[in-house]
Amino acid sequence: MGEKREERGKGKLIDGMPVFAKELIAGGVAGGFAKTVVAPLERVKILFQTRRAEFRSLGLLGSFTKIAKTEGVLGFYRGNGASIARIVPYAALHYMAYEQYRRWIILGFPGVGRGPVLDLIAGSFAGGTAVLFTYPLDLVRTKLAYQVADSSKLNVQGLVPREQVYKGIRDCFSKTYKEAGIRGLYRGVAPSLYGIFPYAGLKFYFYEEMKRHVSEKHRNDITVKLVCGSVAGLLGQTFTYPLDVARRQMQVQRLLRSNSGDMKSTMEILVMIVRREGWKQLFSGLSINYLKVVPSVAIGFTVYDVMKSFLHVPARDETVMEVATSRSSQPLALHSSPSLSQSQQ
Questions:
Q1: What is the three-state SS of 124-164?
Q2: Rg for the chain (alpha carbons), in Å?
Q3: What is its subcellular localisation (predicted)?
């Protein structure tokens, strides 16, 4: 009896939550779970992008071996605390904003329809919104992941002489803010926005479009969701990867030995990379990113859909109808209120 009461209590609590809160929770859980699974690949990818001479010659397995020897298992998760601290609110905002923008577009612009263009637009704006709110955490995550411990002295290599080593998330925030203020915390946000608008839009576009071609009978299968999410992430990432490389370079400019002191713009970074190392460097680490993105996006979309089902989030068409009904009832209530007050008098 007691267990049944607890289950009923949990059911009432879940059903009493607003839809946007459920979407926030579902998105946060999905993002945190997916990011933790691929954290080691994320660390190696960042080192490939920013420490090319040191790690590219080692290759994927060699890089894993070096990190394991010099830093141990925890080395694969360096900067992952900041990554989780960023990805949970980022994913929560991203998924929730996507649902909200989708509803607003349907209600405000009925002519757009409910096809792939809607998912592309809603996903793009949702990605931009999430980036603006959580970018400083991504910057901190990259700076912490960039630091590499030496096997003999356990100090940090590759830093400018007298450059302070970041001890953790709070220390990195504090020193970055003291050094350059708010602008320092948003260093590299431009290529992030350039990249996230097409990437987020394409990711949702491909995922929803692929699901539309699956029969209703198999649409809720976890395997189908994983496959759709994998292809969506792979295609979306391929088109926008050079901007991700530029963003990482901008984030660690102050830590690079070769840095002349002048902070470069997104286009200057891209041109500099092509001139010095060729256009292939714009896709440095892409193979690792495929290994990371495929499971990350697949797991993210799948866990999000599973969490929505667990939290009893209604179907998208149902939520749109609820919002439309509530909006249409408000003017009616306002119109009827004078007559109610007259009858009360």
A1: HHHHHHHHHHHHHHHHHHHHHHHCCECCCCCCECCCCCCCC
A2: 23
A3: Mitochondrion inner membrane
H-only helix segments in the chain: 2-16, 19-37, 39-50, 52-55, 59-71, 80-108, 116-146, 169-185, 189-212, 222-251, 266-277, 286-310, 316-344
For 252, phi and psi rounded to 5 degrees? -110, 15
Banded pLDDT at 149 (limits 50, 70, 90)? low
Distance CA 310, CA 300 (A): 15
* Tokens read off for 11: 């059911």
CA distances from 122 to 180, 228, 342 (A): 33, 18, 45
Q: Which two tokens stand for residue 76?
A: 């694969």
Structure tokens at 293: 């993105």
State pTM to two decimals: 0.70
What's the rounded Cα separation, in Å, for the pair 218 and 221?
5
Among 298, 341, 281, 285, CA closest to 46:
285
Identify the bridge partners of residue 156 per DSSP, sorted by sequence position. Answer: 149
Question: Could you tell me the maximum CA-CA distance found in the chain, to the nearest angstrom?
Answer: 87
Handedness of CA 292, 297, 303, 307 (dihedral sign): positive
- What are 125-136's pLDDT values in tens digits? 999 999 999 888
Which residues is 149 bridged to in the sheet? 156
What residue type is assigned to position 271 of the chain? V
Mention every residue, 6+ apart, whose C-beta is less than 8 A from residue 147. 78, 156, 159, 165, 166
**What is the pLDDT, as a whole number, of residue 89?**
92
285: alpha, beta or left, given left = phi > 0 and alpha = psi -120 to 50?
A: left
